[in-house]
Every structure is written in structure tokens, then in C-alpha cells.
């Protein structure tokens, strides 16, 4: 695109961006974000990402921490569960669909997130992800706090046991990169380090809470002035056995004893019977999942009443049947993580051309053949691996014609609307605006781009 067009919309004074034409910015955003994501000039890319994010803040779409809302939920549970949505592909279009539905339903309590593993296979570094989300907010005229979250910033057990330092350093580096990209919500997942050979539950949880406290202190050390990053902890490896009250106490008591770096955790992820992506049967359909809602209710109540947290977090929920979702607010669950169900709509929609889907599946069968486990049917292999078809083929997805993307996005929008209703986040804009103060962290526009403007 011709960057000269931008000079009528934006200007730079003393390194800071000024927005002259909000409508003009909305009109040009599709073209601008496409250029930013797909330019091969890395310096230009960083400059454009910075420009777009600063323009979003000037449009009042501001990256924020959900900490203060979660403190309010800890004092007085308001009866809704915050959806945290992982977007693996068609990120800009999907984020626009989310913001459209949020505007329509007056939703403010909503998180956009990406996990450590997803950053890798979807080829979306934190700066790209946060920029694309904020570009979508501008395009749809969404204003107010935008919550962007690092999900499952996880220590990989086998790497950690082989040598703790490089694995810890990697996660510290990822935290630093995410906070610089204005992810002000980070979930530390050191539940992988739980040692079940120890005699007591507290000792089993010790490697988990010690590492969470260490990484939490690092977050507090590097977070911007005026912002308390919302930090989540985790006690149960998702897909493992269900969490217990004793595990919750063992972890949170241990964390509290050693964490002295300011505000502690805002929430706690627990295991209640789900697995990421659901369990796929040989014919490619999903097995029915039974969530232990009693465990969620008990643990969320304890987290709030005994420790002042917002409640507990449910992972791996997007493939649950529709009738399950109303149970999350009813059991006091503070946050629910949703990913695979949206990916499934993108792949399985009648609007997605069969030849395009076949092209992606052929790529997956060739590139990830080593991941085809013995005894897996082709349907099982494709289902478990197709999440990896988004990153390397990002441009192919983005370039799908609008007569394909539009009906797919309509299906997604309908799904978001249903989830927002079931999770009771309709009309949460007011409580978000009342509790969360948006702090604008200004980033300097690189010199290369200043000359263009």
C-alpha cells in the first residue's frame, strides 16, 4: 500500500502518534494490517505493527489488564464467566466477528489469548497477535479495555527435568516478549512440574508454586508503571485427573508463603474432566465429555472466599455441547478457555471450499507424517493435527475470497453470540469500565516510518 495515504490520517510529533481522521483509519485498516502481517521487510513490519497499535490506542481500543475486574469478582461474584478465546487462523476476520458481536451485545468482559504452543504452530508472535486484534477493534469501532492474554505459558516437563535453566529462561523470554507486545494478562502453567512421588500434597505441588512465584515476581518486575498484569496459576495438568480442594490449598498456601512481589494470582486453572481439543473417535467425531461441575463449584468458592481470587478457570471447553455452557456462571467459574470449536467451524463449514480443505489436509499429511500415531485412523490424525494447517498456510487462509469468509464468519459470530449469552457476559461493558482503568503505554514510532508520515 502507499503509505503516503496515511499522512492524511495520522501524524507523528516528537515520536508520538496523533490520529487526525478516525473514519479514514477504519477505512484503510484492512489494507494496512494485511501489509503489516505479510511484508517480508522485518523492520518495516515492526514499524507498521507499532503504528497500528498506537493508532488503536488513539481510537480508544486500549490493551489492558483484567486484574481489577477479577479483584471485584473475588469480593463479589457478579454471575458471569469471562470467555477467553484463542484464535489460531483467520485471526483478523475472527477478531472482527468477535468485536461485532461484543458491540451488539454490549460485552466488555472478554479475553483474546494465544498459548505458548499456538504461537509456534500458528506462526503468530505476540506482537503480531496483539496488533491484529487491535486492528480488528479499530475496524469494528470497539472502544474500551481490550484484554490480550498469554495462555499456557508452560514449562515443558521433559525439557525442565533435563535442564531447568534453559527451559525457565525460554519462558521468561516469552513473558518479556508478550509484555512488550502489551499482553497484560499471563497464565503461568508450571503444573507440568508437579511431583506425585512426594509424600504430601504440598510437597507434590512445591515445584509448581515455587516456579509460578518466581515467574510471577519477574512479571511484577518488568510490567509497565501503573499496570498490574493479571497472573493466572494452574494446579492440574489439563487432561489429567480432576483437581481436589487439598491440591488447591497446597498450591495457593505455598504460593502465598513465598510470593512477596506485590499483587498475587488473580485466578487458578483446575482440571475437571476436559482435554484440549476434545477426544476424537475413530470416525472423526468427538466423544461426549462429562465435566465435574461440582468440583468447579467447590474449588471456585474456595478460591474466592479463602484466597480472594476471582475463581477457577476451565480449559478445553469449546467442544462441549451447547447445553453445558450455562453451568459455568452457575458454578462461579471466573474464566473459560475456548479454541478448537472455532477452528472446527473454519474447517467444517459448508462455505469452506472442499478443494481448499483438501489442499490443507494434503499439506498436513506430508509435513506432519511423523505425528501419525500407530492405530490412528486418518480422521483421527487429521483432526488432531489440522490446527497446524493455519501457520504455514496463513496467507492462503487470509486470501480466501469474501464469498467464502463471510458465511464462515457468520457461523462464528452466531457461535460467539450463543456463548456470550450462556456465559452471561451480555451488558458487561459497564462493570468493566467501572473497575478497569485503562493505562495507555505509549510506544515510540520508529524513525523509518516517521519520515513517511
Structural features, described:
It is a single chain. Helix content is 50%, strand content 12%. It is globular, with a radius of gyration of 21 Å. α8 (164-180) crosses α9 (201-222). A hairpin with a 2-residue loop joins β1 (10-13) and β2 (16-19). It is built from 19 helices and 11 strands. The protein starts with 9 loop residues before the first strand and ends with a helix. With 453 residues, it is of the alpha/beta class. It has 2 domains: 3-60 and 443-452, no CATH class; 62-345 and 402-435, Aldolase class I (TIM Barrel), CATH 3.20.20.
- Helix count equals 19
Elements, N to C (H/E):
EEHHEHEHEHHEHHEHEHEHEHEHHHHHHH
- Beta-strand content estimate: 5-15%
Report the principal-axis shape. Answer: globular
- CATH homologous superfamily descriptor of the largest domain: Aldolase class I
Query: What is the helix fraction of residues, given as a range?
Result: 40-55%
Largest sheet: 8 strands, parallel, barrel
Q: Class by helix and strand content?
A: alpha/beta
Q: How many runs of DSSP E, i.e. beta strands?
A: 11
